[in-house]
Structures are given as structure tokens and as C-alpha cells.
Amino acid sequence: MNEDILIKTIARLTTAPKGILAIDESLSTCDKRFEKLGVPTTIEKRQEYRELLVTAPQIEKYISGYILFDETIKQATRSGEPFLSVLKSKGIEIGIKVDTGPVDFPEHPGEKITAGLEGLSERLKEYKALGATFAKWRSVYTIGENTPSEECMKASAEIFAKYALICQENEVVPIVEPEILMDGEHSLEKCYEATARNLEIIFSELNAQKIFLPGIILKTNMILPGKDSKVIVDALEIAKATVKCLKEKVPKEIGGITFLSGGQGDEEATVRLNAMHKLSPLPWALTFSYGRAIQNPALKAWAKNPSDVALAQALLLTAAKNNSLASVGRYEK
Questions:
Q1: Confidence class of residue 41 from pLDDT cuts 50, 70 and 90?
Q2: How many CB atoms lie within 10 A of CB 124?
Q3: Could you tell me which residues come within 8 angstroms of residue 101 by beta carbon, excluding any fewer than 6 positions away?
Q4: Span 90-96, mean pLDDT?
Q5: What's the catalysed reaction (predicted)?
Q6: In terms of C-beta density within 10 A (0-12 exposed, 13-18 middle, 19 or more buried), how is residue 24 classed?
Q7: CATH superfamily entry for domain 3-326
Q8: Model's pTM, two decimal places?
Q9: What is the pLDDT of residues 165-213, one digit of tens each?
Q10: pLDDT computed for residue 100 by the predictor
Q11: Band of residue 263 on the pLDDT scale cut at 50, 70, 90
């Protein structure tokens, strides 16, 4: 493992005022979004939409890295230029989602762990040869009466450590993404409790396996009440709770922290990130790694009028710029 390569990649990914754009939706997730907007669920339409995202003019002013899916990393523009060539020409780091999705956690109804470790080293070597410099692995947890369980959190932490080790051995920066889902009626306090305990377990396992912490990025949820709780919490309270949790549970030496939007409204995700940067100085680089919160306006415009790519790209750029400003506390609604 070359620690210097990992540190330099993270520095490029977390340089203010930029963040990461996630366009790593699985085929099923992408098709569901297309269906909802009346877009044909074909490989050609997926390629057309992703071309719009990859070729957006000036996006590199606000975005440091793109997280791609296996299908996307091998696609090209309709003129024949590989997506990776376009991104490299913009100085954008190339990331790849490497997990294969959630599977049932045995003897724990309703809980999931994430698959994809088998053959991971070989796949990473292939992606690295294509130009990937970082990877992403996501695990999901639901807050319920008895969830997330200690057993599930520990099993997921062990998987994260194995994934991170394989990435670092291949000199690819691992993004570790534990997502406490917004689904449910839980309180903000319950989300805090579950997130804090989960981070505690994850970093305990990463340390036990001697993962090089300055060479990883944590992608995490904000501390939020469940979307069915009907409780309204202002951005400052969410920012304070989130920063407090992270300061207590995330080691200062970690390479950086990015947030997932996780079902928040587009504006909410931006305003809440902005509020965090209004607080006291933070011990780590803190930015965004949003998917839907940046893509949504562009996707809706493109679905309505696929021929007006310029409008969709302008909306994408505006959303990226807003979050770029929020990542340094300079966004104004």
C-alpha cells in the first residue's frame, strides 16, 4: 500500500469548495426513476442521460469526483468518446460503486448486510486500470424497535474493514458509507443514538484491522428525524446534532467526511450542509457526495424535454454550485 497515493487522492476529492457527484444508481434504481418520469428504461436512454451528466460544461468548478456504476464506467458518448476520457479531461476523479447491494442478514428479519466481497480485488484491479482512483461501499440500517441490532452493525463493520483493506492494498481510496435510513417514525434523538453507536462500532473494527484512516472517506447520513415522524426540525438543530455526533465518534485523522442526501429534499440537503459550516471550525474536511439532491432538477427537465440538454445541464450546474457554496458555508437561499 502506498499511503501517499491515498492521501493525495483524498486531497483532490475534498479540496474546498468541491464535492462528489454520485451517479452510481443500480440498473433497477435508475429504471424506477425513469419509469416514474415516463422515460423508456433502456440502456440507450441510460447512456443518453449519463452523457448529459458527464459532459456538463464547467461542472469541474464544483465537483471533484464522480461515482460511477459498472455499466457507466464502460460507456461512451454518442460521438464515441469514453465517459472516463471526458471526466479525466476535466480533472475529475473517477470513483466506482463496488458493492453488489444488500442481502438479508440471517436470523435477523428486516435487517440487511451488503454483498460483493467475492472477487473484489480482481474487479478493483480492472477499474483501476480504467482510471478509477476511489471506490464506494454502502450498508443500510433501519431504525425500529430492535434495530439496528448490535449483531448487524458488527457484521457490517467487519465487511467494511475487509472492503477498505482490499481497496487500500490496490491504492484505491475507499469510501465507507453506513446509511441510517430516514424511513420510519423515529425521533432525531433515536437517529443520533443509532448513528453514534454504529460509527463507534465501525471505527473500532477499522482500527482493529489496521486500516489507514487518513486514507479513507466516511460517507454518512445527517442526524434527522424519520420522514414519517411529521416532526419539523430546523437546519441549525440538525447541523448541531450531526456535528456533535461526528466529533464524538469519528477520529480526527480520517481523510474526510461527505454526506449522502438520503431522501432529503434538494434544498434541505443544501441548507443543512451550509448550517454545519456556520458552526465552530471542524477537525476534518466536510463536504457533500449527493446523487438525487444534485441530479433531480436536471433529470426532471430532461425527462420532459430530452432535446433541451443545455437546460438540463444548466440546472445540474446550478445545483452543484449551490452545494459547493454550502460546503464552505456561503450558500444563501
A1: very high
A2: 22
A3: 26, 114, 115, 116
A4: 98
A5: beta-D-fructose 1,6-bisphosphate = D-glyceraldehyde 3-phosphate + dihydroxyacetone phosphate
A6: buried
A7: Aldolase class I (3.20.20.70)
A8: 0.95
A9: 999 999 999 999 999 999 999 999 999 999 999 999 999 999 999 999 9
A10: 95
A11: confident
Residue 104 pLDDT class (50, 70, 90 cuts): very high
Residue 122: active-site member? no
Residue 226, C-alpha cell as written in the block: 424519520
Does 107 participate in catalysis according to the annotation?
A: no
Catalytic position from the list 112, 136, 190, 219: 219
* Selected residue with higher pLDDT from 51 and 26: 51
Catalytic residue (one of 177, 190, 205, 321): 177
Name every residue whose Cβ is closer than 8 Å to that of residue 162 and which is 6 or more positions away in sequence.
117, 209
Domain ranges of the chain: 3-326
